[in-house]
Task: structure prediction
Amino acid sequence: MNESSLGIYFHVPFCAKKCPYCDFYSVPFSKSLSSDYVDAVLRNVNHYGDNSFVDTIYFGGGTPSLLTVQQIEEIINAVRESFNVDKQAEITIEANPAALNYEKLTALYEAGINRLSLGVQSMMENELKFLGRIHSPEKVRNIIHEAKMAGFSNISCDLMIGLPNQTTKNIAHSIKCLSEMQVNHISSYILKIENNTPFFFNGVSEMLPSDDDVSDIYLFMCDELEKYGFMQYEISNFAHEGFKSRHNSRYWKCLDYIGIGPAAHSGYKGRRFAVAGDVMKFIGEPFQTEVDTDTNPFSFEEKCMLSLRLTDGIDVNKLGIHKDKIMSKLPKLIENGLIISDGKKIVLTKKGFLMSNSIIEYLIFE
Ligand code: SF4
Result:
């Protein structure tokens, strides 16, 4: 990826049904609201457009696949008109398997989308029910098959771990199914109970596995994914050779991206800013209002924290004046199996990833 290139993220804030664990900003889908939303997106694309070289575009949400293909195509075309978009740009859409069919997949592919990120979460019927998802394992199988028929060769699936009563056998089953369907990328998240979600009020916290059990499940999942050729490249992300998410890699490498839409975040031209999670405000403004979210963006500490999320780790030469302090703390962490270092790089182990926040705190801030 070209280090001076730009990524564009669109937050599409609509969902067909709110999942009981989710606290992302989204509102119920309506045709007229989505039409006003797309108009506002187009105004903003035009507003930011400066012919910069764009090599990743990402539709996230929410459920972007609820927009019509014409709406998505209009947005992609607007980006192409306002920026210098790489012919090989990675263009991803997050999609709910329940909101797709073969016709839509074909049209999305023809509109320029070349990467699908499916909110699968599990290939176990009971886990999907618990998560309030509206698709079945069978639907996932059909959609992945149809996506391939439509031309998609770059497919990522989300997987959720740390569910109540989830066994390693369940995880192994989900991974085996996805691998058999030859998807290329898995993003895995540990279920967290967010404030003010139905799971928060329904006492799901008490049903969750202990921290030790979640650690065991995470380590098992990493090994299992590796067995099927999904190599870990970030705490939560695993890919076959050549299929790392180029757009998400921007976030960890502190490369520029503009976020457009309610609740979208940006890291752009040395600033970090966000847009209020309020679709009516977004629609009503000529251009989205940017609110700075960080007084010291792209600091050394932030860069270290983000680098340590990656299996490439931190280049020791980039530690500058902090090098001696940080290097002096390594032996204890290496001894405990949390870090490996060849003197040129510092990399967290899988066990280290599970404690990444406290390790980073210790290395950088203490
Ligand atoms: S998990 Fe995805 S589909 Fe479910 S409510 Fe959140 S954004 Fe919408």
Remarks:
- Residues 136 and 154 are 22 Å apart (CA to CA).
- The domain at 6-252 is CATH 3.20.20.70 (TIM Barrel).
